[in-house]
Amino acid sequence: MPPSTLVLPRATSRGSSVAGKAYWGMVGRVALTAATIDAAYIVLFLLLGSVPLAAINLISIAMYLSAYALIRRRRNMLGVTLIWVEVVAHSALGSLMIGWESGFHYYLLLFIPAIVIANTKGYAMPMVLGLLVYYLGLKSLCEYLGPLAPLPPRRVEIVNAIHVCLIFGMFAALASFYRRTILVAEARLLKQATLDPLTGLSNRGHFQTLASNELARCQRSGAPVALMLCDVDHFKQVNDHCGHAAGDRALVHVAQILSANLRECDVLARWGGEEFLALLPDSSLLAAHAAAERIRAAIEAHPLIIDGTPIAITLSFGVAQLQGGHDLQDATARADKALYESKRAGRNRVSLG
Ligand SMILES: Nc1nc2c(ncn2[C@@H]2O[C@H](COP(=O)(O)OP(=O)(O)OP(=O)(O)O)[C@@H](O)[C@H]2O)c(=O)[nH]1
């Protein structure tokens, strides 16, 4: 039997620093897989004529099933400790009984990535060194004592070959788990760094990156570019009369209508509290004005429904054309001035800057 199908990173009661819930789900599956492989190993060792090793696998199954039950009950620390004890003890017993050549010691190598990645309290290096000392000590002891329950060399070769195959599979599974964990974390970080958590639109920083790319493209092709800045009218009243949660829903509502009415190539962002900014590539001032009018009418036509009551929401717009040099800052300032003009003139309108 393999002492374990995987050696596990960081055992804390709160969860792994690497994965959390998914991690403990994976640990539980590892314990079950290891118990299943141990069951197969009982049959193998009986066929190879090693009753003591078959008996050891029975104990291993009990340990893995107990570890699984503990993890299910969220006693993660205890469960994972049981798995580690099983791996260490099983690799030692297997090596001592049928010899170092059986390859039971390969499973100890799985501890190396697990220890280094978990790096519990910064003790990774001493732990790896401790493992090395244990590994070499076990090798010397096996060579000194010789196999305690020897098998014919051909059968030892079979056991070794099975262990090699399993170790390949386990390292691949371990690497794949860490890879997936890193990719998920990377995607989450990227989302946090680029998107506004409430509306899911780009944040300011991300807008500037996307807008620069679009501007560079339009500059090369000589296509016109326009900016559209809009702001929810009397938004403070929505918060004051309907509550902050309703205010949040209103912002999401506006973001959805803006997204639905802009093109795929337009760059839209939540610019500030209740302010949204869109860069419209390949758009003249006239076209941008028409788009803003369309969105203004769509917002007006779709009031937000809170507890069955329609809440009228309107937007004021400032639209500006980017000039030859495509100075985003200058165009934003002009759009802002135009927006102010819309507010001053009574709101729910579009002004050009
Ligand atoms: N619910 C909610 N409110 C926000 C958020 N961000 C900003 N606000 C609120 O938006 C309101 C903006 O108010 P004002 O700047 O006075 O603007 P206004 O009431 O829309 O008035 P005008 O712009 O002049 O039409 C403030 O009360 C902010 O607290 C948010 O994420 N959620």
UniProtKB/TrEMBL annotation:
EC number(s) for this protein? 2.7.7.65
A Gene Ontology molecular function term of the record: diguanylate cyclase activity
TM segment ranges: 39-65, 77-98, 158-178
Q: Which GO terms describe its biological process?
A: cell adhesion involved in single-species biofilm formation; negative regulation of bacterial-type flagellum-dependent cell motility
**PROSITE patterns according to UniProt:** GGDEF (PS50887)
- Catalysis performed (reactions): 2 GTP = 3',3'-c-di-GMP + 2 diphosphate
One cellular component term from this protein's GO annotations in UniProt: plasma membrane
Q: Which Pfam families match?
A: GGDEF
SMART domains annotated for this entry?
GGDEF
Protein origin, superkingdom: Bacteria
Question: What keywords would UniProt list here?
Answer: Membrane, Transmembrane, Transmembrane helix
Q: Which part of the chain is the GGDEF domain?
A: 223-353
Q: Which PANTHER family match?
A: DIGUANYLATE CYCLASE DGCM-RELATED, REGULATORY COMPONENTS OF SENSORY TRANSDUCTION SYSTEM
What this protein is called in its record is: diguanylate cyclase
- According to its UniProt entry, this protein's organism is Acidovorax carolinensis
